[in-house]
């Protein structure tokens, strides 16, 4: 188990993003020192970082830099105890437009981090978040449908969702880059004894997520509803995902690190599971029942690589660490809707939030100047 009293920071790459900021909040609240490494390139992350710094002051260490620059990565890794690696290009559509940029960030960036760890101070754990997209489009799974969702034609085969034994079938540049990265992370455990774990995530949602069509779709739909805007559904809306509230993911991330002697070298599929699966059409009904608002919905063609049905089987992590989702999809959406109302900001407003004076100049005390 990680020792709180080492005074060595836990590094979170992409730490100003949605998952990183929620994890940092939990770790800091438990008296860990946290180092955030981020290039602040994504919409809304400045707001996240300002919020974290206001709450925890000098206990937050910040290094601004790109995962694509090895020298910056090496400096961030130095003297860290554990690492959570979230920095990534996260858009499937963007990967189709610019595959090289996607590769540079997701594959080469991950290799920069692994090499920096190998060549620097030994760490106690390395936790990487991959994606269910590594299993491909899943067009080989036979489906039927009703008026609101796709259903498994043979439910007994995948009645608990898809587990880690599913063959990887990299599809789209994004699937290739995330899949390649998660294989490198696993290999650096077997080849170089870096205590690494891969979590293949389903759809995560919750506070501090600034959702878009490309990533964070559930939050995007809620934001568009609150702002009285319409939005587009690609496909027919019957596609099914299992959704997981961020608090449950943070608990899983914490458990995986604490139990690294058991979890090192393993892959875990992490999501809401079959009991928290929902189609986009069902989500629209849920949003209406919670908000009383019914936004205008446009439909467009399916996008390359879209999965009609993806649900995580979380039996492996439940058996090993006794983790399972505790927040139902209905309660989670209510919680997020309430948070968004209390922190209601349009995307135009988010773009205009300034970085507070001092954040770019903040120096990490443990790093050489």
Outline of this structure?
With 369 residues, the protein is an alpha/beta fold.
Major sheet attributes: 7 strands, parallel
CATH architecture: 3-Layer(aba) Sandwich
How many alpha or pi helices?
13
Question: Which strand order do you get reading across the main beta sheet?
Answer: 3-2-1-4-5-8-12
User: Please, how many domains?
Assistant: 1
CATH-assigned fold name: Rossmann fold
What fraction of residues sit in β-strands?
Answer: 15-25%
Describe the structure.
- The protein is built from 13 helices and 15 strands.
- By secondary structure, the protein is of the alpha/beta class.
- The protein has one domain: Rossmann fold, CATH 3.40.50.
- The longest helix has 21 residues.
- The C terminus is likely disordered.
Outline the secondary-structure elements:
Blueprint: E1 10-13, H1 18-29, E2 34-38, H2 45-56, E3 60-64, H3 70-77, E4 82-85, H4 92-97, H5 99-118, E5 125-131, E6 143-145, E7 150-152, H6 172-192, E8 196-201, E9 203-205, H7 217-226, E10 231-234, E11 240-245, H8 246-258, H9 260-263, E12 267-270, E13 277-279, H10 280-291, E14 297-300, E15 309-310, H11 315-321, H12 329-342, H13 347-351
Parallel strand pairs: 1-2, 1-4, 2-3, 4-5, 5-8, 8-12, 9-11, 10-14, 11-15
Antiparallel strand pairs: 6-7, 11-13
């Amino acid at each position: 188990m990680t020792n709180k009293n080492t005074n060595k920071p836990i590094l979170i790459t992409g730490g100003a993003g949605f998952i990183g900021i929620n994890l940092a909040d939990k770790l800091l609240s438990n008296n860990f020192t946290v180092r955030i490494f981020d290039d602040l390139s994504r919409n809304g992350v400045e707001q996240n970082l300002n919020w974290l710094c206001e709450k925890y002051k000098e206990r937050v260490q910040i290094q601004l830099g790109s995962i694509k620059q090895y020298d910056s990565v090496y400096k961030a890794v130095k003297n860290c105890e554990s690492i959570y690696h979230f920095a990534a290009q996260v858009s499937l559509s963007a990967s189709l437009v610019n595959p090289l940029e996607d590769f540079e960030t997701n594959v080469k960036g991950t290799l920069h981090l692994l090499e920096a760890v190998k060549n620097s101070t030994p760490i106690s754990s390395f936790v990487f978040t991959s994606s269910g997209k590594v299993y491909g489009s899943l067009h080989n799974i036979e489906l039927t449908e009703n008026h609101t969702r796709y259903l498994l034609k043979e439910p007994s085969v995948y009645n608990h969702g898809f587990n880690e034994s599913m063959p990887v079938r990299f599809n789209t540049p994004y699937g290739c880059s995330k899949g390649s990265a998660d294989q490198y992370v696993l290999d650096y455990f077997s080849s170089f004894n870096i205590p690494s774990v891969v979590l293949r995530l389903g759809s995560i949602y919750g506070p501090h997520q600034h959702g878009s069509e490309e990533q964070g779709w559930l939050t995007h739909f809620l934001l568009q509803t609150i702002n009285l805007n319409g939005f587009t559904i690609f496909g027919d809306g019957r596609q099914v995902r299992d959704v997981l509230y961020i608090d449950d993911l943070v608990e899983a991330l914490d458990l995986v690190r604490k139990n690294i002697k058991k979890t090192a070298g393993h892959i875990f599929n992490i999501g809401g599971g079959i009991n928290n699966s929902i189609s986009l059409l069902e989500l629209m009904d849920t949003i209406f029942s919670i908000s009383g608002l019914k936004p205008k919905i446009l439909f467009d063609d399916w996008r390359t690589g879209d999965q009609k049905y993806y649900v995580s089987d979380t039996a492996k992590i439940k058996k090993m660490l006794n983790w399972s989702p505790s927040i139902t999809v209905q309660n989670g959406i209510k919680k997020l809707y309430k948070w968004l109302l209390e922190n209601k900001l349009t995307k135009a407003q988010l773009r205009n939030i300034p970085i507070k004076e001092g954040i770019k100049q903040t120096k990490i005390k443990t790093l050489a100047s």
